[in-house]
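Forwarding the complex inputs:
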Amino acid sequence: MLKMTKVSKIYRTDTVETHALREFSLEVQEGEFVSVTGPSGSGKTTFLNIAGLLEELTSGTYELDGRDISALSDRERSKVRNEKIGFIFQSFNLIPELNIFDNVDVPLRYRGFAAPDRRKRIENSLEMVGLASRMEHYPAQLSGGQQQRVAIARALAGEPRFLLADEPTGNLDTEMATNVLDLLDEINGNGTTIIMVTHELTLADRAKRNIFVRDGRVSDGPPEFRLAAAGGQG
Amino acid sequence: MELGPIWRSLSKNKAGFLLIALQIAVTMAIMINAVAIMQERARDMGRPSGLDEPNIFALSSTAFVPGMNMRALIDEDLELIRRTPGVIDAIATNSFPLRQGGSSRGFQTEPGTGKDDVGAAVYFTDEHAIETFGLMLVEGSNFAPNEVTWTEEGSDAWAGTVIVSRAFAEALFPDEEGSYVGKTMYVDQAKPVQITGVVETLQAPWKGWDGVERAMLVPQRRDFNFQRYVVRTEPGMRDVVMPQVEEALAQSNRNRIIQSMRTMDEVRYMAYLGDSAMIKMLAFIVTLLLVITGLGIVGLASFNVSRRTRQIGIRRALGATKTQVVRYFQVENFLVSALGIGVGAVLAVALNMLMVNAFSMAPMAWYIVPIAMVVLWSVGQAAVIGPARRASRISPAIATRSG
Amino acid sequence: MLRYYLKLGMLSIRANPALSALMVAAIGIGIGACMTIMTIQHVMSGNPIPGKSDSLYYVQIDSWDPNNEYNGPNELPEQLTYLDATGIDAAAGDEFRVVWSYKSSRILQPGDGADLPFEVRTRATSFRFFSMFALPFRYGASWDAAADRNREQVVVLSSALNERLFGGGNPVGESVTMNGDVYRVVGVLEPWLPVPKFYDVTNNPYEEPEEAYLPVTVAVAAEHDSAGNTNCWKPFPGGYEAFLNSECIWFQMWAELPTAADKSRFEQLLAAYVEEQKTLGRFPREMHNELSDVMEWMQDNEVVDDDVSVLLGLAFLFLVVCLLNTIGLLLAKVMRRTKDISLRRALGASKQTLFAQYVVEAGLIGIGGGVLGIALTWLGLRGIENLFAGYDFVERLVTMDWVMVLLAVGLAVVSALAAALYPTWRAANVTPASQLRIQ
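Prediction (whole assembly, three chains):
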């Protein structure tokens, strides 16, 4: 499904070169639920940006669904994002000027579905996150948990093969967070591949596989993490 | 395209977009009316006087010693001018087209007081007028030399025959189909005058008069102290002949002064100075206005781009291509422009009606409205393209940054 | 507090140089366009004789054709016939100060024959013209009533003509020859330039006053033709004598009537005069007399050109566009700073203080726009002067005075504040800390 080989990302300013990823390699199979953890500045976000085709990589190869992504044009990258990847962000990233219906509609528009099809998808996905009754509302009128569920509905509406979640519960209280994680489990159960970036180990624990990033590389991770992971498998 | 969401998103930031729409509306109202005025002036300026303007000049002679033999002086002067190499012909006249000063009379189709009359400018001159002005005689014939008489200052005698402009003949005899030659009309309520010729075009001296196309040649020479001479030269000879004629006349008799020597081009320039200045000022205003409105759109669009950086990033993350982001701003601008243009069309028509009433302007031509629409739409699209391009370069990675 | 607001305003202007420059430019250009046209309108509609404009009245009576109105319904002839000018003057006698005059021209023959003869524009009038219109004398004085009565060949010269003929010296008692007639110089004027030339607007309100003034009795006796508008409705037999007795109008008449009582007595006099003439078979139309003071007369005659009114209207709409532009940009600026505003609100700024802060900032932009506007007005006036380069009088119409400069800055500041109203209100209504929670 996803295969990164020796991917590097270097940010350059006039005076400084920052190596955000160093020969990062990772392979994720179809249907997996993988968590990516690591301390701040470890390269998690860069990994996410590259995995989600939000940024280009400096060197290495990245194959998504058997296709080499590194050589694609901006237009093709946009298309891949739109069709294959669903995003869930920490700060929800709903568009405040648009109501819930229109927010979920955004990626479907770019996809070019016909109007009745879009309406059905939007209704279905909002149904799934339990917010079908709030379609006319604006983001500011919803609680944080509800907003994140709208964001999930938006990610799912296009039926992506692959869901990227960036600290999906970071701005939520515990109860709402559990709620959202249950939803992700359910989605994964339906066959969608999920990669979740987080710095909370308890969250990472919900995933079926854990990857620890340090200094831009996949690392063996701290002992407690290995223990937890071993415990999880055991 | 995603018209619905764009529209709903617009209505969340009403004030900003309404301001642009209003600005476009007022711009359109000004632009359309300015163009209507410019068109009217340009049309006026384009009317032919009937004269061979590039090859004609005029000057005046004022005698100041009492008791001079003016008839002899005028004949000598004209003889001298006509003899000058390069001159085609010359006349003495009381006025000429575009001069902005002259005489007019009322003419009626039957004698008696209280009858409707039609006004026309009268040029008191002789049988050389058609050749000197370069008029096109379309009917009848030129004056015979013995038709031309002398009149004294203060005399109320009138010639029995005249050559009129076609526009005057049509105005006085609106029901006449074929020929105007031989028709009789009355001046000073009683004196009969017969039309013996019709020229295609001969303007009155006042360009702002609504009867400017109505004028006539009267075969009467006036032996006043003050005379205007009009001279027509061979093509290209005007500027050579002018100083020679001035010098020759000044030398020939010292008891008068020669002044006001001007080419017809200068006379036309002075007559339409106000109109050409008006056209230039309005053109300047319209250009400046479009620039300001354009800059306003650029300013607001740039602001919207920077304000919506995050939204655009999210859209890009969700799969919008660069083209789609640019298209979004273009459609948004198109919708706002449409609102402004709609209101602007109404405003423009209202303003035009106001001006037609207050300043007796001609109503504007309908086709200015769609042209103005296209122009404003284009200005809007051109103005928004820069900020939209900038928006399309926003990195989709912005969506993963919290802040 | 004001100093703090000024500082914040300057900071904010410097923080958004492009946006601020755009606003200053928009206001400046709008003000410049408006003030350019307003300056011309201001000059054209100025009061040419401020001290006396309320007590000088232009005299009109309806002597016109029974079958045709003069120039449309209720329009009176603008000028008087010779019969009426002399008739009303005689009726007024010494009880009222009345002046009548017409425009003419003469050929002046310089004395020693060295210079060529040249044309001078003359005004034929009576001795009261000078005191009624307060013409300033440099040398000598007006002629007197006896000179008018006795048809003395006297002349008053303009300052420019005196310069040309006598090098600016005192020529009183010298003589000048015009069309063969010899006139004695009795006075020379200081430079005098009423704008508009109110005492005769029928013959171009925007030209220099005449260069020489002669007794009208002399001019008429010597058959000086009118160089102004002459309109006739009734045929008359030939000859100057017949012309004087005709229904042709070519004189302008003014009466000086300092009080309302004077005015009403003069109205009675006019009515009595017209009645008397009707018994003699003149004045076939219904009686209609009118007295207009200077400013009314200027308005009736539309001395402000229609084009100027059209341009003024368009220029004001132009300013409206510039202001809409400014409102939009200010709003953009405020919305971009909602975070800053909400932080200030959280830190205890009241709505009023925020309002004051933004009003001061808008005022600064307004002053900038005003200064730019003045510069652009000056440029605009130079541009118009260029467009009318063939027209001598234009330089009189394109001069800015202090009134206009102050008006420009005032208009700019008021415009900027008006433009700032809505954005500032929006700024003041940003809720405290609402913008801080997110992100």
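Residues 4-46+273-402 of chain B form one domain.
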